[in-house]
Design a protein that fits this description.
Elements: H1 16-24, E1 56-60, E2 63-67, E3 74-76, H2 82-87, E4 94-96, E5 120-122, H3 130-135, E6 140-143, H4 150-157, E7 162-164, H5 176-186, H6 190-210, E8 218-223, E9 231-234, H7 241-244, E10 249-250, E11 265-267, E12 279-283, H8 287-294, H9 303-306, E13 310-312, H10 315-323, H11 326-345
Helix pairs in contact: 5-6, 6-11, 10-11
């Protein structure tokens, strides 16, 4: 499943003084590719034990990283990896805010798995917070969804063993399956990681079986409110597997309106008729977004809209679609499938309250 960033992101350079501080910390931290494990008491928030034997080695785009012993102080520098750690029973001590400002940067579908953990929230507005990360004394840094450059990786791996995206991945959002396997291996829970992946496949298969009426219908997936005079719509394959895995066919031809391959199509007001389908999912994040969508171009007169075949999500469901982790996808199946059934039946409300 390909993933696209909801919010364009960029890394700014850190200040020279901050770089010096990070490098100075090198001698006090564990090292990527081997070294002495950081002394740490067992993390009381962990609810599982490793099934693999340490040391373990994880390969990634910058080579490989060896984790000498079960990590106890895991820092997440990517946008979504906390979900996998929480589901594996190894809550991180720090997360990174993507959007939504959820407590601990943990969304509602995952909060029950914190198990008493109180992770620090990092921010990347001005680049990675190297000084703050060093102060947390991590023994593993997870950045499979962090858009790391080689320079970023070098600085982070000087603080603790660091796991980056797989080789060949886009800067952000390598496949959720690859990320799950990398993270699970890093914490010594390889088999459990495979189980998470299979659980998602099973959830989609079961939902598709329960709703044969979805099969073969066309669907369009759009972000919520228009931005800068354009409505952002997802071509087939660009974060649309949550619909095709349920049996739908994505509306063809939208890729022609993307600025570059792998990006969302940008539909101006006069082109919104191109998105009409048997079902449309609008990832609205608040009630006002519904009106903004309906007021844009010809959206209110689309067959899917007038026939009540359009789904308007709330902010949490939209976030789950964008997050694209095993946990969030199971939330999508639970919360979106009933709304899709209503949409197919022509009874979907024009409201985020599905």
């Amino acid at each position: 499943m390909t993933r696209i960033s909801r919010v364009p992101r960029a890394r700014s350079r850190i200040a020279a003084a901050l770089t010096a501080l990070a490098i100075a910390t090198t001698g006090l931290a564990a090292c990527s590719g081997g070294g002495t494990p950081a002394a740490a008491a067992r993390n009381a928030t962990y609810s599982t034990t490793p099934s693999d034997s340490f040391p373990v080695t994880v390969t990634h785009q910058f080579g490989s990283t060896t984790i000498p012993a079960e990590p106890q102080r895991i820092v997440v520098v990517g946008l979504t990896e906390q979900d996998v750690l929480l589901e594996l029973g190894t809550p991180p001590i720090a997360t990174t805010e993507w959007y939504g400002e959820q407590p601990h940067a943990v969304w509602p579908w995952a909060t029950d798995l914190l198990n008493g953990a109180d992770p620090v929230v990092l921010h990347t507005t001005d680049g990675f917070e190297y000084e703050k990360i060093a102060s947390l004394d991590p023994d593993l840094i997870v950045g499979t969804n962090a858009g790391l450059t080689e320079e970023d990786y070098t600085k982070l791996s000087a603080l603790a063993p660091t796991v980056a995206s797989v080789a060949g991945a886009e800067r952000f959002f390598s496949s959720w399956q690859d990320q799950t396997r990398q993270i699970a291996k890093a914490v010594g829970r390889t088999a459990e990681g495979e189980r998470l992946i299979q659980d998602v496949a099973d959830a989609y298969r079961d939902a598709a079986t329960a709703h044969p009426e979805f099969a073969g219908l066309t669907a369009t997936f759009s972000q919520g409110a228009p931005y800068d005079g354009q409505l952002y719509v997802y071509p087939d394959g660009l974060n649309t597997d949550f619909l095709t895995d349920l049996g739908f066919r994505m509306t063809p031809g939208l890729e022609k309106y993307a600025a570059e391959a792998g990006q969302q199509a940008q539909l101006s007001a006069e082109n919104t008729n191109l998105m009409d389908a048997d079902v449309i999912v609008f990832a609205t994040e608040e009630e006002s977004g519904v009106k903004q969508v309906l007021d844009f171009g010809t959206v209110s007169s689309l067959r899917a809209v007038t026939g009540r075949h359009a789904v308007f999500t709330d902010g949490t469901l939209a976030g789950a679609i964008y997050f694209l982790t095993p946990l969030s996808q199971k939330y999508v199946v639970e919360k979106l499938v009933p709304r899709l059934a209503d949409a197919v039946a022509g009874t979907a409300p024009q409201s985020i309250e599905g």
